[in-house]
């Protein structure tokens, strides 16, 4: 049985299952995902952190990888960390802002 | 994730010891209120109690937090993960023995246990300095932490001086003056400097804000480093000009206070959780504490017994109203993180995992904080009045403060109970949690059985 290439929507949905345990918001709504690049069965995620000193960064990277690797058809997943441009609260979704009380 | 995992395990024994000391202090305080609070503060029980709180609770928490937070805050790795393990046992033996030695007023014991504490401290400072040296950048946080370590060494040397003077009696300084100088060096140089430095990283991180004025921060830093040595010398030599040291000190603390207000004001996380509110209350206690200290430092024609007694209330406000209240709030951020890190990393991205705030009782947090705050103020006022009011009033106030602390320790135990659910204490906690919340406590899947 062959499995097709993953779609961007599938990757986004997978990243929505990874929640920052400190602020209880998933990576997509938090706005830390800067880009998703799919090449056949390989996925590259470009992401940042809400704070460059975030102690959760290793866990969030591992969680993002793990969630994407569970998508049928994904054979490899790389997470590229960038700190520029720095994350800003305007990058959050409307629902995330509501969660934080905005 | 190996190094990070090791770094998150290291603070746990320090925190368990710190909570045990805090719980002991909370239970002991009402029973010994007559000795510790209602009389002049230079009694063997007050000295023992102060070291139980300052070394057993506050210093243990700082040592534990530092091995995890300093590498994170400075973007570096801990130089050694083995040294904190050895240092922990030296610290436990040293602090327990020192408190017992003060309690029975045996200074030969104190020399032995003090040596164990010293060795533990040397290992900690060496590890921190080597870690800071590897940090890629020097910023306000690393400079404040390095300075706090410097004052820790000075505090320790002042303590050694006092201890040896008790055995071979050589000091030309008045013992009370030397004790006051030692205590202020510990509180301002070690506790405050560490809290201030770490807060410049933690509070912007938790509130989704950022540092607002580096110039204000550096001004505050310079002012504190002018005021602390001035105050130390003034207190040691019992000088009339000691109150002048309050000017740079109040400037330094004021800069931190206004910077924190600006950080809170510019936050992108409008709804503050209980821990962040509690930190803010602690910060608001600081101007009151500074004004209290300034009044105590003002020279007067004749020594007043009332002012001498009010120093006990001042000490309680410093150790509990500011330092302990702030640390308690930070613990609601750090301890859930450490416990979470031991259980959930293998599950993230695979199944739903609880957030950090799911690991403790919010109701218990609110209740304990409210009771503790009421207790602090009742204790500060009643202990400042001393023998002018009935002892039962002081005991009731101390009981209220102790109850708030015990409930806080219980909530921390609630978090730690998630680590090992097979031990009898953890099982008992689960039943209490079930009764308290009316629901089955959070289900925790074993990482080893995860898909």
In brief:
Chain A is an alpha+beta fold and 102 residues long. Chain A has a single domain (8-92), classed as 2-Layer Sandwich (GMP Synthetase, Chain A, domain 3), CATH 3.30.300.
Name some characteristics of this structure.
heterodimer; A: GMP Synthetase, Chain A, domain 3; three-stranded mixed sheet; two-stranded antiparallel ribbon; 5 strands; B: 451 residues; globular
Description:
The complex is a heterodimer of chains A (102) and B (451). Chain A has helices spanning 8-15, 27-30, 57-69, 94-99; strands at 19-20, 25-26, 33-39, 42-47, 76-81. By secondary structure, chain A is an alpha+beta fold. Chain A has a single domain (8-92), classed as Fe-S cluster assembly (FSCA) (GMP Synthetase, Chain A, domain 3, 2-Layer Sandwich), CATH 3.30.300.130. In chain A, a hairpin with a 4-residue loop joins β1 and β2. Chain B is mainly α and 451 residues long. The model of chain B is unreliable at 441-451 (pLDDT under 50). The A-B interface holds A 14, 17-19, 21-24, 50-56, 58-60, 62-68, 70, 89, 100-102 and B 1, 4, 68, 72-73, 75, 201, 204-206, 208, 268-271, 333, 337, 340-341, 344-345, 348-350, 352-357.
């Amino acid at each position: 049985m062959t499995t097709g290439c993953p779609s961007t929507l599938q990757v986004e949905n997978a990243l929505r299952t990874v929640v920052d345990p400190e602020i209880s918001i998933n990576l997509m709504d938090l706005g830390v995902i800067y880009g998703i690049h799919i090449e056949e069965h390989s996925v590259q995620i470009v992401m940042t952190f809400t704070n460059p000193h975030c102690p959760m960064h290793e866990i969030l990277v591992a969680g993002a990888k793990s969630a994407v690797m569970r998508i049928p058809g994904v054979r490899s997943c790389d997470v590229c960390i960038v700190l520029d441009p720095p994350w800003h609260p305007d990058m959050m979704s409307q629902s995330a802002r509501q969660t934080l009380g905005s | 994730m190996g190094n990070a995992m090791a770094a998150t395990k290291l603070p746990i024994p320090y925190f368990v010891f710190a909570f045990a000391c805090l719980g002991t202090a909370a239970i002991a305080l009402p029973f010994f209120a007559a000795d510790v609070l209602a009389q002049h503060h230079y009694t063997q029980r007050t000295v023992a109690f102060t070291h139980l709180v300052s070394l057993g609770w506050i210093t243990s928490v700082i040592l534990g937090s530092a091995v995890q937070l300093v590498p994170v805050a400075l973007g570096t790795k801990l130089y050694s993960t083995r040294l904190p393990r050895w240092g922990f046992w030296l610290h436990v033996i040293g602090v327990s023995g020192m408190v017992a030695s003060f309690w029975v007023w045996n200074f030969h014991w104190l020399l032995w246990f003090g040596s164990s504490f010293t060795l533990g401290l040397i290992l900690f400072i060496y590890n921190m300095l080597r870690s800071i040296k590897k940090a890629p950048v020097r910023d306000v946080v690393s400079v404040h932490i390095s300075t706090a370590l410097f004052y820790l060494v000075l505090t320790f040397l002042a303590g050694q001086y006092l201890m040896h003077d008790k055995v071979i009696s050589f000091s030309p300084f008045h013992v009370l003056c030397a004790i006051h100088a030692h205590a202020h060096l510990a509180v301002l140089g070690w506790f405050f400097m560490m809290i201030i430095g770490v807060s410049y990283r933690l509070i912007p991180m938790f509130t989704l804000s950022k540092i607002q004025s580096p110039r204000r921060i550096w001004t505050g830093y310079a002012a504190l480093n002018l005021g602390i040595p001035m105050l130390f010398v003034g207190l040691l030599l019992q000088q009339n000009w000691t109150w002048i040291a309050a000017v740079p000190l109040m400037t330094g603390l004021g800069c931190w206070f206004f910077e924190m207000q600006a950080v809170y004001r510019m936050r992108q996380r409008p709804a503050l959780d209980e821990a962040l509110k509690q930190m803010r209350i602690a910060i608001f206690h600081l101007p009151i504490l500074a004004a209290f200290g300034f009044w105590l430092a003002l020279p007067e024609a004749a020594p007043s017994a009332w002012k001498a007694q009010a120093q006990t209330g001042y000490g309680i406000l410093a150790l509990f109203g500011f330092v302990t209240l702030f640390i308690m709030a930070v613990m609601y951020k750090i301890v859930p993180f450490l416990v979470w890190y031991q259980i959930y990393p293998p599950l993230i991205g695979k199944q739903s995992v609880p957030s950090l705030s799911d690991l403790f009782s919010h109701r218990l947090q609110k209740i304990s904080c409210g009771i503790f705050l009421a207790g602090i103020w009742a204790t500060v006022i009643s202990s400042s009045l001393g023998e002018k009011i009935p002892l039962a009033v002081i005991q009731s106030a101390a009981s209220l403060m102790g109850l708030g602390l015990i409930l806080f320790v219980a909530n921390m135990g609630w978090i730690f109970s998630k680590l090992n659910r097979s031990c009898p204490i953890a099982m008992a906690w689960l039943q209490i949690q079930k009764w308290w919340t009316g629901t089955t406590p959070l289900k925790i899947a074993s990482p080893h059985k995860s898909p």
